[in-house]
Write a structure and sequence with these properties.
15 strands, 5-stranded antiparallel sheet, alpha+beta
Length: about 750
């Protein structure tokens, strides 16, 4: 057990002793059992708390009957904990109130047997016990979970008021004739309250005074207490040393004026209380001073969050522009280099042949232009065909050149070198285009993130308070809740709960009830020690399950098709079917490359245009003709629609009341150097349905019309059974047609409406 926990349990022991003393002085057992119940409800160790409780009772009585009556809540709670543990449910607020009543039942029976006319006392006992227990639950939750980090709720203010009254009664009962302990404690508490704010001084003095007056059965207690509070608020926290002296003076004046007992001992308590506060550590008093800012409404930190979101949005947009500029810079210039080609090849050929030719001067006789005009004529004549020969040589070359064959060889060698150089340049330009597309994709992602962060978060404080109240009522320890939205329509919730609250479904039901719409748990994050933040979003309108079947054409049993169903986020599911060219290991490799890259890019937030550009570029670098037909279905489970994106993919089928066939088109990825434009179509989901995606091996064998007829017979069932039905029909028709000719893959998703119960 940690040192902090040991201190807590020592404080519980002192509190039990204090409350049992109050009950002894008042003759009314209404404080200790409710406090014991509240500790158990707040998940304190039941065995240790029970030991402290019964030990404290023994200090004040050795009466066996009294001890047995006091032990009734221990027995009841131990039985209740065993039952709840077996059922796997927490004790909620209703349960603990029932258990408190059962714990009081033996005392009620005893009171009624002693005097049947004590029915009013019984009613007061029951009502006060339940009031004190519920206030204790709220106060303990405030102290051990919410601490002084959040603004007091209305319930917490009321609970604090009740406990201040109890403290007032208790310390007034501790007072003796020569020394009034109550006024010393009152002075300590109101000066501490002064460090928070002056309203707290009035609040503390008033309710402590009510407690003192109830004990004395005289309103003078509340009058003098309020006067203590008013006197303290004259001073500031910097001059709190003088508050005790001023209180003592006011106390003397009050007692003289109203002719109340006055002696040296009546002056000592407020002076001693002020002295106690003065000797408290400076850091502790400085911390109290900072609590006032924590009590304020949390609009300031939330405004800071929105301000930081704006700054982050601006930085992301700047970074997006940087990547966009890089993308533009990397794009190669589309210029016509024909003149450059001729000059380059001419210069190379001239330097190798004509420049070292002994007859070069004879060739230049009568020519007033540049000395390489003869070679340039030959190059110009052959630049389109890519190969020089005697037939392309112009008359000026054949009539003058004495080494025509050597010149033609030099031109051809120069053309070969230039073509190799151009090939390397083209490949480099293709690589630059690929990188440029990636930079452009990153730019779009950053721009999208910038747009998301640019929106201001709207908070719903009333819903937050309602959510905290509902969770606490079910004994789910919640330190704080955050309800926010960026579009003012669909709100999200984050609740900070005790790690022991593992029933996420119960919490989701409570959140849904508070929101009035179905909500679902999406994420858990650790926060401070012992607490976790649970995120809840609007529950998806549709749920998805899927089944699949496949057949491999190759003897090695490797299917060239690859497919996957993947949840991208709480509201999006993607189905991918990749059909590599051919069959066997090579096709499987290509389709796997496409599938894995599509998955990674979508998870990273890239759009399909960037994905297509990248995949086309990657496949263009492969040796040989390698490409892959890709069929994508992106399902929005909240808004209820399907986006079909096809790069050479075949038709898809939506089976509901009938069969709806999507279109198809576009070329596979990698078949051209330039990325193909995809076929895109959106379908709205109006009811529960099946989505069927197949590779071309299936449709080439069965046929689109026959597939339509086959699926029209489907009336329900699970997606695995439908995938089995299709692949069996494929097997049958393959045998009838003399064998299959391609790999076959079937991916079936059942899309059905979520239940809205909560």
């Amino acid at each position: 057990m940690r040192a902090g926990e040991i201190v807590n349990y020592l404080i519980f022991l002192i509190t039990f002793v204090f409350l049992f003393f109050m009950e002894t002085m008042l003759g009314f057992n209404v404080f200790t059992i409710p406090f014991y119940m509240s500790l158990i409800y707040n998940k304190k160790n039941i065995l240790l708390v029970s030991f402290l409780y019964i030990s404290s009772k023994i200090i004040f009585t050795i009466n066996l009957l009294s001890v047995v009556l006091s032990a009734s809540p221990i027995v009841i709670l131990l039985i209740a904990y065993f039952v709840h543990f077996k059922r796997g449910r927490n004790i909620n607020l209703l349960h603990i109130n029932i258990y408190l009543f059962l714990s009081l039942f033996p005392a009620i029976v005893l009171m009624m047997l002693e005097n049947f006319t004590k029915i009013l006392d019984v009613i007061i006992l029951v009502l006060l016990s339940h009031l004190i227990m519920n206030c204790s639950i709220i106060m303990l939750f405030r102290i051990f979970v919410r601490k002084l980090l959040f603004k007091f709720t209305k319930e917490e203010i009321f609970a604090t008021s009740v406990w201040l009254i109890i403290i007032g009664i208790g310390f007034k009962s501790l007072s003796i004739d020569i020394f009034d302990t109550y006024y010393m404690i009152l002075t300590v508490l109101i000066i501490i309250a002064l460090f928070i704010n002056k309203k707290t001084c009035h609040f503390v003095s008033m309710f402590l005074g009510i407690g003192a007056s109830l004990y004395l059965k005289n309103p003078s207690g509340i009058a003098l207490s309020i006067l203590y509070g008013l006197t303290t608020t004259i001073f500031t926290k910097e001059t709190h040393w003088f508050a005790g002296l001023a209180i003592a003076i006011v106390d003397i004046i009050y007692r003289v004026y109203f002719n109340i007992n006055l002696s040296l001992y009546t002056i000592i308590p407020p002076l001693l209380g002020s002295l106690i506060v003065s000797f408290l550590p400076y850091k502790l008093k400085a911390r109290w001073s900072g609590y006032y800012l924590m009590f304020k409404d949390k609009q300031t930190p939330r405004s800071i969050i929105n301000r930081d979101r704006k700054l982050l949005s601006s930085k992301l947009m700047t970074l997006s522009n940087v990547f966009s500029d890089i993308s533009l810079t990397l794009m190669p210039n589309a210029t016509n280099n024909t003149e450059f080609d001729v000059n380059y090849i001419t210069r190379e050929s001239y330097n190798k042949c004509c420049k070292v030719c002994p007859s070069a001067n004879l060739c230049q006789d009568g020519i007033t232009e540049n000395h390489d005009i003869i070679v340039k004529g030959l190059v110009s004549a052959t630049i389109q065909t890519g190969r020089a020969s005697i037939l392309e040589a112009p008359p000026i070359v054949t009539s003058r050149c004495k080494r025509i064959n050597s010149l033609i060889s030099s031109v051809n060698e120069a053309i070969d070198r230039y073509q190799k150089k151009q090939s390397l340049r083209t490949e480099f330009d293709s690589f630059k285009v690929l990188v440029s597309n990636q930079m452009n994709g990153v730019s779009k992602i950053l721009a999208s993130l910038s747009s998301d962060f640019d929106s201001t978060l709207q908070y719903d404080r009333m819903l937050e308070e309602k959510l905290i109240y509902e969770l606490n009522a079910h004994n789910i320890i919640t330190s704080d809740a955050l309800v926010y939205s960026s579009n003012k329509t669909s709100y999200s919730a984050i609740v900070n709960v005790y790690d022991g609250c593992s029933d996420q479904q119960l919490i989701a039901n409570i959140v849904s009830s508070a929101f009035g719409i179905p909500m679902c748990y999406t994420k858990k994050e650790n926060t401070i020690q012992g607490m976790s933040a649970l995120r809840f979003e609007k529950k998806a309108t549709y749920q998805i399950i899927y089944g699949d079947r496949s057949r491999a054409l190759s003897a090695e049993g490797v299917n060239g098709d690859c497919y996957k169903a993947l949840r991208l986020s709480y509201d999006k599911v993607i189905l991918i079917l990749s059909d590599g060219m051919g069959h066997g290991s090579a096709a499987n490799r290509n389709s796997n490359i496409a599938l894995n890259l599509i998955e990674s890019f979508y998870m990273a937030g890239f759009e399909y245009t960037t994905i297509a550009n990248t995949l086309s570029g990657i496949f263009s670098f492969q040796n040989g003709e390698e490409f892959s037909a890709v069929d994508i279905a992106l399902i929005n489970t909240v808004d209820g629609y399907i986006d079909f994106i096809k790069f050479g993919g075949r038709e898809s089928f939506i089976v509901s009341n009938g069969v709806e066939i999507t279109g198809c088109g576009s070329l596979p990825l990698g078949i051209l150097d330039e990325p193909p434009a995809p076929y895109i179509e959106r379908k709205i989901i109006t009811s529960s349905c099946f989505l069927v995606m197949v590779s071309d091996g299936v449709l080439d064998t069965i046929g689109c019309d026959e597939m339509n007829e086959l699926l029209s017979t489907v009336k329900g069932g699970n997606p695995d059974a439908i995938a089995e039905l299709i692949i069996n029909d494929y097997d049958r028709m393959s045998k009838e047609g003399g064998g299959c000719h391609d790999d076959a893959s079937v991916l079936v998703a059942k899309i059905y409406k979520s239940t809205d119960s909560y």
